[in-house]
Amino acid sequence: MTGNLSPSARRVQAHLDSFGIALEVVEFPSSTRTAQDAADSVGCEVAQIAKSLVFRRKDTGGPLLVIASGANRVDLAKVSALLGAPIVKADADFVREATGYAIGGIPPCGHATAIETILDDDLMGLEVIWAAAGTPNAVFRLTPSELERITGGRVADIKAS
Ligand code: 5CA
């Protein structure tokens, strides 16, 4: 039932519906604000949470989205090497402007602007993952190949060791 979703979560559901695959946003009474919160609410491993981290390219000033396993830290040097440009972590205002969503609920796709996206290859070996869906209480379940499809992202090794 999407009728009870909050407006931001409903916006994400509408975007997911546009792909014609059955992806369903679920809102929890408990928090899904952090990867650990989301794992606790869903009842999955934190590694199965696809967290959306927004950076800013220092060459173009444009946004970059890295979708990382909840168990991993992003290695900025690896990502910079991939892009051929330095990056910095975006601040909350930049994140909201670029994505249309607040930190803690940033979905992997369906943003206010088209955002260049990199996917953590550690997510690709998992059967099922969960991603944020617009609010700090909303997530949806998907497969790694569905994540590739809906984001158009490039899979890479981006984890800090
Ligand atoms: N809903 C959960 C699970 S999908 C979620 O969105 N988790 S998250 O990890 O993708 O989003 C929180 C991330 O936002 C944190 O890991 C952190 O890197 C980033 N963040 C938190 N506070 C700030 C801030 N003030 N400025 C910039 N980034 C922040």
| Beta-strand percent range | 15-25%
Structural Rg: 15 Å
* Portion in helices: 25-40%
Whole-number tally of structural domains: 1
What is the CATH architecture term? Alpha-Beta Complex
- Name the CATH class: Alpha Beta
SSE order in H/E notation?
A: HEHEEHEHEEEHE
The coarse overall form would be globular
CATH topology: YbaK protein
How far the N terminus sits from the C terminus, by CA atoms, comes to: 41 Å
Small molecules held by this entry: 5'-O-(N-(L-cysteinyl)-sulfamoyl)adenosine
Domain YbaK/aminoacyl-tRNA synthetase-associated: 31-149
GO molecular function: aminoacyl-tRNA deacylase activity
Pfam family, one: tRNA_edit
Protein name: YbaK/aminoacyl-tRNA synthetase-associated domain-containing protein
Which keywords apply here?
alpha/beta, 161 residues, YbaK/aa-tRNA-synt-asso_dom_sf, YbaK protein, YbaK/aa-tRNA-synth-assoc-dom, 8-stranded mixed sheet, YbaK/aminoacyl-tRNA synthetase-associated domain-containing protein, globular, aminoacyl-tRNA deacylase activity
Could you write a compact summary of the structure shown?
The protein has 161 residues and is an alpha/beta fold.
3D architecture notes:
The chain has 161 residues and is of the alpha/beta class. It has one domain: YbaK/aminoacyl-tRNA synthetase-associated domain (YbaK protein, Alpha-Beta Complex), CATH 3.90.960. 27% of the residues lie in helices and 24% in strands. It has helices spanning 7-17, 35-42, 76-83, 92-99, 144-151; strands at residues 25-27, 49-57, 63-69, 87-89, 116-120, 129-132, 138-142, 154-156. Strands 1, 2, 3, 4, 5, 6, 7 and 8 form an 8-stranded mixed beta sheet that branches. The protein starts with 6 loop residues before the first helix and ends in a 5-residue tail after the last strand. 41% of the residues are buried. The model has no long low-confidence stretch (mean pLDDT 97). It binds 5'-O-(N-(L-cysteinyl)-sulfamoyl)adenosine. InterPro entries: YbaK/aa-tRNA-synt-asso_dom_sf, YbaK/aa-tRNA-synth-assoc-dom.
